Amino acid sequence: MNERRRFLKRTMTGLTAMAATPAIASDHFISQVDPKQKSRAKDALTYITIKDVELVKLKFDKKTPLTWNAIKKSGGGYPSTTFLKITTNEGITGYSVIKGADKDVLGFVKKIEGLNLMNTEQIWDHMFFHDRKPVAKGKEIHAIGSVDLCIWDIVGKALQLPVHKVLGTYRETIPVYGAGGYYEEGKGIPELVQEMESYVKEGYKVVKMKIGYLDAKADAERTRAVVKALGNDARLMVDANNGYKSAYEAIRYGRMVEDLDLYWFEEPVAPDDWRGNAEVRKALDIPIVAGENEYTRWGARDLVENHSCDIVNIDSIKGGGLTEMRKIAALCSAFHVQIAPHGYAHMNIHAVASIPNALILETYPAKARDFNPALAAFPIKDGYVNSPTEIGLGMDPDPKLVQKYRV
After folding, report:
1. What is the value of pTM for the model shown?
2. CB burial of residue 158 (10 Å; 0-12, 13-18, 19+)
3. How far is the C-alpha of 93 from the C-alpha of 110, rounded, in Å?
4. Which pLDDT tens digits describe the chain residue by residue (407 residues)?
5. Are 405 and 58 in contact (CB under 8 A)?
6. What is the set of domains in the chain, with CATH numbers?
């Protein structure tokens, strides 16, 4: 009887270990690789849990200009960035940039203490469904997304691979666009054109500018001037940031610029106006983008089922993190809809590198690093960047910057 119990105990322990680790943890696989890799793989696939957590807040000393889009002002102060830092029992340190309240992020970290961080699906479900009100939108999803991305950084570092390699790389080079073209005091059409041209000189083949703050005719004039200046060197995107109060206003602008072969028309109407988005999409021969202000796979489902857009640009953090972004992409692919995630490029690049129906990566031009050097700009060549080679997400803050700018 004692032998039988010991056998059952060994069997159940083995089954539990198999269930708790990815398929690559099999002894057959490990035996086929280099001894150093074998040791690394075995070490990485132990039970990895949270040992310590802290928020690393950086505030920089160069004041940004005051700019605005169709709905809000930004800048005019000293930029800051907050990193979530999780240290594990194995000595691995993960980082992500957070969005939302500190207490919410730390609260969700506390919820997953003791769980195996290698079990990313289990971790996400525990954060989303366990012991909280069943709200599918808002600040709690920001916190879940922030924590999820930090966990993926840990997983990549545990496996000694870039995160996109863990997920399964689809593309080694990634098309990018330069986001800018904000409204600014004293900034007219010549200054806007000069800004967009500077991004092309940096290596971009697609650039983006803001619309929706001025009347349709004035914004159409700005748009036309930029397209003319860029010529065949680059294509232009426009972003209304939900600035048009009705579909017919967005359509009026769109018809004034429809002949310009714009790359896309982003967020023409209010985020929850799925019908309005669908009307704009039906009326114009310009790809319509929406989703930056939606949450999770259920928000993506509402967008695509209502034929609201051609491209979904759900934010990597608002969307629920990389775990949820993969589900969003899979859902969209069933409708033949592409994704182009909004948000921090250093996290999104792993999604775009690994998701077949990803279209393009949003980045900010190098000049933004003059004000916020927390994350280095990507080297761009002919409109593309290379998939990351650093293990994890590859966005650990520079220790010198932390020492100098930590709050």
Report:
1. 0.88
2. buried
3. 16
4. 444 344 334 434 443 443 433 333 333 333 344 555 545 545 556 899 999 999 999 999 999 999 999 999 999 999 999 999 999 999 999 999 999 899 999 999 999 999 999 999 999 999 999 888 777 788 999 999 999 999 999 999 999 999 999 999 999 999 999 999 999 999 999 999 999 999 999 999 999 999 999 999 999 999 999 999 999 999 999 999 999 999 999 999 999 999 999 999 999 999 999 999 999 999 999 999 999 999 999 999 999 999 999 999 999 999 999 999 999 999 999 999 999 999 899 999 999 999 999 999 999 998 888 888 998 889 999 999 999 999 999 999 999 999 999 99
5. yes
6. 1-45 (no CATH), 166-399 (3.20.20.120)
Contact 288, 265 (CB under 8 A): yes
Pairing outcome for strands 173-179 and 361-363:
parallel
Q: Can you say whether the dihedral through the CA atoms of 379, 385, 386, 392 is positive or negative?
A: positive
One-character DSSP codes across 23-76: GGGSHHHHHTS-HHHHHHHHHHTS---EEEEEEEEEE-SSPPPEEE-SS-EEES
